[in-house]
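Archive transcription. Copying these from loose printouts into the bound notebook so they stop getting lost. Printout 1 of 2:
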Amino acid sequence: MNFSDLGIETDMVEALEATGIKEPFPIQEQTIPIALTGQDIIGQAKTGTGKTFGFGLPLIQSLGVDPEPGVKALIVVPTRELAVQVTEDMVLATSNRSTSIVSIYGGKAYEGQIEAIKAGAQVVVGTPGRLLDLASQRLISFADVKTMVLDEADKMLDLGFLPDVERLFAQTPATRHTMLFSATMPGPVVTLARRFMNKPIHIRATSPDETITQANIKHFVYRAHALDKDEIIGRILLAPGRGKTVIFTRTKRAAARLMEELNDRGFLAGAVHGDMSQDARERSMVAFKAGKKDVLIATDVAARGIDVDDVTHVINHTIPEDHDAYLHRVGRTGRAGKTGIAVTFVDWDDLHKWALINKSLEMGIPEPVETYSSSPHFFKDLNIPEGTKGRLKTTPIPQKEKRAGQPPRGSQGSPRGGSRSGGSPSSGSPSRTTSGAESASSGNRQRRRRRTSS
């Protein structure tokens, strides 16, 4: 089956085929025909299964080949990285049309986004905060929106965006076509769907008995020591066949430190975390996608914004908070039908967290094996050659700097014969030690004379 069989028009089919996208994923096969009829949809599928084109292609087709200027479609996403990813996919699909796409998110200057809106962009992809900000300033209007999409709805809930999403829904026409997509369906998301959708059809693209252990990802869980993690990661990065790798950390500081450490070891590593400017984050993502850097270190804020098909390894430097976060992280690998490897480090204090994740996902790994960078099973599990060290280059040992004002070595009476000025004890130039001794002896003689006379 191809996209033409699903009812997608020729120009978009050709745009996708030009980049090697020819066959739809299951979520696309089930979603596209229904979405083309204008039926509200709740689409549920794990990350990396092609949800963007599942709602994007019907949305673009509904606007026509040459749509009128003005915001006609609104796609709301939880993170800046996901906004960039969705925009790229939408631009690809509309490459043979006059449809204009604009990304609206924080961390970037307002001017370029406002100019694109004033120029008549028909499709807006944005995060809730910046969208509401522009709407409050009357710089954007959603009064003519025909189609609204809420992508990664469960992540919206995690980040506390659902109240903002409700305000956005309230600013769009009640007759709009609404599509909601999410990997999981917690209660508040279901409530949101019931409130703002009209008799939606719930589409689940995975079989009910599918579990994480049946996926095309190999999972390795190790109880590792914090001081040994860097060396373990370095050795994993030297495994034969290792391609692009994503490493997740719990904190921004840990991400920055690990990036510096891996670069020091000779690897090409970038980072994406909240302490970086938006431009810096985008440069890291572009370099990673282009292959200029093959290691990306990220906090969970970027977990759903990394859409790269050739990620071979995901490493959890610290354990995720729950099983949903675990799925979102490891979902960066094994995409588009490929295989992947997920390695998770569990600290001693986090064993209880792992027990809950293991139970929820039925992974069958109740007790992570204690593992070090020298453990034989570690080399065997990840196909790492024996003797591999976690470093591509050695770090030069910095030379000890001379203190300011410190005299050259040997200038204060060296054991090999005095100062560099040519003086020596035999040449009549007494050293400081000799002079001090003579002064002390003279003082003692004077004190003895005073005591005798008295």
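Printout 2 of 2:
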Amino acid sequence: MFCHHCGSRLSEKFIEDRNRLFCPACNHPIYENPVPSTAAVVFNEKNEILLVQRKVEPKIGGWCLPGGFLEIDETPENGCLRELKEETGLEGEVHQAIGNISSKNVLYKTVVVMGYTIKNIKGQLQAKTDCLDARFFSLEEMPLIAFRSHQIIFDRALKLKQTQTQSQNNTYPGRSKFKPQNKPDWGAYVITSGSHIKMAENACKGGARILQYRDKTSDRKVMLEQAVTIRKITRQYNTLFIVNDFIDIALLSGADGVHLGQDDIPISEARKITPPDFIIGVSTHSLEQAIIAEKQGADYIGSGPVFATPTKESYVPIGLITLKKVLETVHIPVVAIGGLNLENIPELYKIGARNFAMVRAYQTNTENVVREINKRYASDPAARVS
């Protein structure tokens, strides 16, 4: 009769249409069956996703999929439908199982979340048990999903929905369709630094066709907030948005893709957790690495450092000769990077480079620098979008 989390004496409280043990100190019910829980993925006819706003901890005020713990006497499918009705007033039928995700929980250490897509929805939508609000969101306007497990289930369900319908439209938030075989010429490949949001806005105003958010100092919470803001800016200008290193930040912000280093997660593993048409770029530092990256499925590569640069002090510059070999060998877009500036870009252009990534050179007078590079060296912007 004591809380296994804080040790306080338990009482009884009428919660979710039944009497449950309740810890006044933790302000949380003690479930009889706390390990298995469910999450319901519900799309309406407008392809909007149903989310609920939590009224209780954990993640109070956050948005997530409808769901909760199973009762001892019910199947996961029945439990999922019960939670859906208790939280939103809607009823439906289980369509498909999406998968089981293990998730950490403050009270119960580990929770297994079982995701299901729901069809044939009926009833009047209203926020009910444990919910401050319940509503359908368009994919472009949906808030961040508070639970990692729910985000994974949502991503899987969306990917499955796209595959089953064989839709030609990419419905993931803000993502542009990209065909690396077209070998688009982006011209200015802008990598943010310093005031990331302001730089992104200026770059887009200047006509940047692709922009990478690269932040080596901020904590992950700040990074996500900045990425979400930059996603909104790039969407407004139809600019491809890439996040450096962090797949989770890229997915949560609705970015078009991620740029990975040689020591990051392999491309094959990244493909398992990312939606269709998700762009994966890879940094390469030799002809051999460039060839391998293409074979492994990279959509584009960064090749460099071409010249010595303080941002890559530990790498030996590959020089113009190696860059030329890379450009002539691989069949996907190549972005030249490392020590580039307005004075040496013409040398790279002469050997076939058409995409120029810089950090320092874009920091000052960003809008005009981007506009000048694209005017001189980039092809028709329509080449990158179908």
